[in-house]
Design a protein that fits this description.
Strands 1-2-4-3-5-6-9-10-13-14 form a ten-stranded mixed beta sheet, with helices on both faces. It has 13 helices and 25 strands. By secondary structure, the protein is of the alpha+beta class.
């Protein structure tokens, strides 16, 4: 998700890409060459969905449809008011498509009731059994019969929440649906996307998003009449959320009882049927359309959903056309930037432009307009560090080796297992003085935290740091990561945050574009970070307390990476017990955190073991040279 900085409308504009760098097209061309019509398309249960349709004025050709279904408004409304860009890429604008934008059920000008990540109905028995798959099917069926001239083919695309609606088009897909591109798709809101990561609530994201998006809509409205963005009374998100205190104070201080999905978050603190019903992945079977899954390794919201959607389609659909693209991008960065840099890190080329020209456009042109075969690789992956595109026949790649980076005494890190006895680091964690997720002061959560310098954290006594010697050769990681910690705590619950970091040499040059005057000497670039709520270490359904003082294994997966640690750099791992206010605070007592009071947050002692019998480390996937 993304944050509200001005008005709600500006939020939706950013999300639909209307003001993105890559889609600043000539609006005059659209008005001159497209006819816009607006229709209320009836669904099988009688509910009508508001749909804006842009039809090429040239009538001597037949055109395929490109459909985008969104909860973020299809504005501007009115048949005389045109979008300033159309489609997933400006490169497709003049290629001849009918562009269709639809407000999903219950949002903006569509009828019906809105349900967040609406559960899929696997065995529909009547017209009342509706879901996003059936709404997509009914929309396509209506378009084919009522919008001419069309060639009988449909493609669907979308980023983030619209990425979820793209994914939901795949189960029981309409026969005319030929190409689907879920991009950074919302997938599982408890395990790894947006609002929870491994059971830990992503507090800043959930609060900021639902403070506006979750406001009830009693009847169809346009954005100018919709809810306004939340104004933070404290312009520092770290201090603001500390001031909020325990999570149960959110409703008392700010929301009241009006934000239904926030109340759902508070009521479902384990991976129960509420969350399982909202996981679309088990339903991605018998997939017929060609699929292009797209995402960014530095996507703060839905990197998990991108990778898991691709992997699940592969596993459940042998022989399906299913391709993956992962670039060095933030959320939607493949269309909202040139992709030449992110934060302080430069990639040496316009990665977004390359992707649009060489992957996205050929994909849709081939499957919807019978152009030449795109000949896409199974996985098209950008390696940061070495800054190069690589094409793989599988993801993860075949030519890899699993190795473990072991923590060592004195803050060292090595592929060699430690040989000491009873070796550990001990420190104290205080949830009332949590480790910040990012340096500096921000009102809203900044997307750059995914790749930013971690030197601010490495200086804290409650962050344990382990790093290798200077590398004598390049080390490329391409694939999954697994943290395997042997820990003990004086409390009965704890969070664990593991961060994989690229440490630059002292003589590293400054970025070419360096308005902040950043020193890259010793820069600690975050490559991947992930949290685990300790009570879920064995089961997300049945949390378990820690036994104080007992050595316990905490093992969990981090999203895949593709990064080269260059010769002369170091590999670093940081471990901490808070990541605030990105993640909510753990009281370090075993309890329902959503019901905890301010008095429940206690200091605790922690140990991280690194000896011959209790070795902690990070298992990585090393690409063979």
């Amino acid at each position: 998700m993304i944050y509200f900085k001005t008005t709600l409308l500006s939020f939706f504009v950013l999300f639909t890409g209307m003001t993105s760098f890559a889609q600043q097209t000539d609006s005059a061309y659209i008005k001159d060459n497209f006819l816009k019509i607006e229709r209320q398309i009836p669904m099988r249960d009688g509910v009508k969905l508001f749909t804006a349709i842009y039809i090429p004025k040239e009538k001597n050709k037949k055109y395929p449809f490109l459909l985008n279904r969104t909860p973020y408004t299809v504005s501007p409304y009115g048949e005389g008011n045109y979008k300033t860009s159309l489609g997933p890429s400006p490169l497709l604008l003049k290629e001849g498509f009918i562009y269709v934008y639809q407000d999903v059920r219950g949002k903006w000008m569509s009828e019906g009731d809105y349900v967040d990540v609406r559960p899929h109905v696997a065995n529909k028995k009547s017209k009342k059994d509706i879901d996003e798959s059936s709404d997509t099917y009914d929309t396509i069926d209506w378009l084919l019969k009522n919008v001419k001239p069309n060639n009988g083919k449909v493609g669907i695309y979308g980023i983030s929440y619209p990425g979820f609606y793209s994914t939901t088009s795949l189960p029981e897909a309409h026969p005319a649906l030929k190409a689907v591109s879920p991009q950074a798709p919302v997938t599982d809101w408890f395990i790894g996307d947006d609002f929870h990561h491994n059971g830990a609530l992503f507090l800043a994201d959930a609060f900021n998003f639902y403070s506006t998006f979750g406001v009830p809509r009693p009847k169809p409205i346009t954005p100018d009449k919709g809810p306004k963005s939340f104004k933070h009374p404290i312009k520092d998100n770290y201090r603001f959320f500390l001031d909020v205190g325990a999570l149960k104070n959110v409703n008392t201080k700010y929301f009241g009882d009006s934000i239904k999905f926030w109340n759902d978050l508070m009521a479902h603190g384990t991976y129960d049927d509420f969350w399982k019903a909202r996981n679309i992945l088990p339903h991605l079977k018998s997939v017929k359309p060609a699929v292009l899954v797209v995402g960014g390794f530095f996507d703060a919201e839905d990197a998990y959903g991108t990778l898991e959607t691709y992997k699940k389609i592969e596993k459940q659909n042998p022989g399906a056309t299913n391709n993956l693209v992962m670039g060095p991008w933030f959320h939607g960065g493949w269309v909202r930037s040139t992709g030449e840099k992110f934060g302080d890190i430069e990639f040496g080329q316009p990665t977004s432009t390359w992707y649009q020209q060489n992957v996205e456009v050929p994909f849709f042109m081939h499957y919807l307009k019978d152009a030449a075969d795109a000949q896409l690789a199974e996985a098209t992956i950008f390696l940061t560090g070495s800054n190069e595109w690589k094409k793989f026949s599988t993801w993860p790649p075949k030519d890899v080796e699993s190795k473990t980076l072991y923590f060592q005494p004195n803050g060292l890190l090595s592929f060699e297992k430690p040989n000491q006895n009873n070796s550990f680091d001990e420190y104290e964690s205080d949830p009332n003085a949590p480790v910040p997720y990012q340096d500096g002061v921000q009102v809203s959560r900044a997307r750059e935290y995914m790749i930013d310098d971690q030197r601010f954290a490495s200086r804290r006594p409650d962050v344990k740091v382990y790093q290798t010697a200077v590398l004598t050769e390049d080390v490329t990681l391409a694939g999954p990561l697994t943290a395997d910690l042997k820990v003990a705590t004086s409390g009965t619950d704890a969070d664990y945050v593991v961060k994989l970091i690229d440490v630059y040499p002292e003589d590293a040059p400054a970025p070419k574009d360096n308005p902040k005057n950043v020193s890259m000497g010793g820069y600690q670039m975050l490559v991947r970070g992930e949290i685990m709520r300790g009570k879920f270490r064995n089961s997300f359904e049945k949390p378990e307390p820690f036994v104080p003082g007992k050595v316990t294994e905490v093992k969990y997966a981090l999203p895949d990476v593709a990064h080269t640690f260059k010769k002369g750099h170091r590999i670093m791992i940081q471990v901490q017990n808070s990541w605030f206010p990105l993640a909510d605070r753990n009281p370090q007592q075993f309890m329902d955190i959503y019901k905890a009071g301010d008095q429940d947050f206690k200091k605790a002692k922690h140990r991280i073991y690194h000896d011959s019998t209790q070795a902690s480390g990070l298992t990585v996937t090393v690409l063979n040279p």
